[in-house]
Sequence to fold (255 residues):
Amino acid sequence: MMQYGPMKDSSLENDGVSHPHQVGQYPQYDSFASEFLDHASDGFFNAHYDRPACFELLGDLDGKRVLDAACGPGLYAQEMVRRGAVVVGFDQSPRMIELCRQRVPTGEFRIHDLANPLDWLADETFDLVLVALAFEYVDDRVGALRELRRVLTPRGALVMSRQHPTADWLSQGGSYFDTRIVEETWSRGWRLRYWISPLERTCEEIHQSGFLIERLLEPRPTDYAATLNEEQFERLHREPGFMTLRLVRDGTGDR
Fold:
């Protein structure tokens, strides 16, 4: 689960934990999971920017079986259950799963990395899949998407959000068209590594994994967000920060 916010420092250097050309599978959010929950519960970027856009594209959830991939501390899962969904979720962070189980006792949650095969889930068993602000941390995004496609029903949909590539370019500089890993220390001292890539790369990964883009949102923050941070509110009404996509199976068979 990713959260977008102000940074203190940014570099492309490898810190020795991961391969220079891989984000790797270390659970980066585990050490500050509780702090993240407190921050994201009613935070500008999570509660009043990303979550509303994701729920707009998820649509009616009553009676739906939903897979919450990279579920974080359960903020999305809690709302999905409130709207009538049956939720199964996973995250690579043991602490996040602990928080999720406390927050959403009716859900089914386990420790699992989005980069690994979903060998514990049967084919075509979910009406919807949600991946909120998480694909940036996956090295093999096509492989992950193919697995999520496998567990979707034929008429199901996958909703994913990610940082907007234009926002990444404005923040990081360099060539917009480069696909590369960035390493940042955010204002709370959280040190993170993730991928940035141009829009055409994301679209190609979606195509290679057997999905079509049904809808794409470039969301704006809710009106209430202006009371939390007027400067960020105005900026995100001028330029994009996130984008949210609803994907459907392309109907051409397994890839």
About this structure: The longest strand covers residues 152-163. The chain has one domain: 25-163+200-249.
